Amino acid sequence: MTAPKYKRILLKLSGEALMGSDVYGINQEVVGGIVSEIKSVVDLGVEIGIVIGGGNIFRGIAGASAGMDRAAADYMGMLATVMNAMALADALRQVGVVARVQSALNIEQVVEPYIRGKAIRYLEMGRVVIFGAGTGNPFFTTDTAAALRGAEIGAQIVLKATKVDGIYSSDPKIDKDAVRFEKISFNEAIAQNFAVMDATAFALCRDQKLPINVFSIFKAGALKRIVMGEAEGTMVYC
Question: What's the predicted TM-score (pTM) here?
């Protein structure tokens, strides 16, 4: 059997991905499908770190736009990501995958604090490590947290899982003539202000020479194909 191209990856999941067609919360059927995709890669011996968003429960920027203090709203959003991380870890446990949740905020009665060396040790033991609470700081997105954690754990690539199968020249839901890029440089992605990730995350990955692959988590087998080195979605490169 061909060996995977990547030994260690950082998977970025949005909170909205957990909703499915629901308007709020966690859809267990959708989570089950995502877990199945993750398990298929774990079974290959690939080490997986995961950063998860919280938009299905609370988005800090949305709270701020409604008049809340931005820092307070962002901390609430961080707590939402911890809830999602716990739900994902439990779903992985149910299919026989051992997962650990580490939080950038100290809530040790519930989950472990983020400790880089411990996270790397878990990965080496074959456990999935789910990073909650973003960077632990307001004003930073979970995309930036994914770039940061990916660099910290020595991931070879960041896989940005979305509802769309890559980066397009324009919104494919609106523009039928939108074209999907197979590859695009970090500088081009930043210059064109593609909304798939924020500029801080793009810049951090660029500076660390950490490629990003944007793909659809709902496309069966896509995650595994990327790990095996097949073309899937859009590759953002240095």
Answer: 0.94
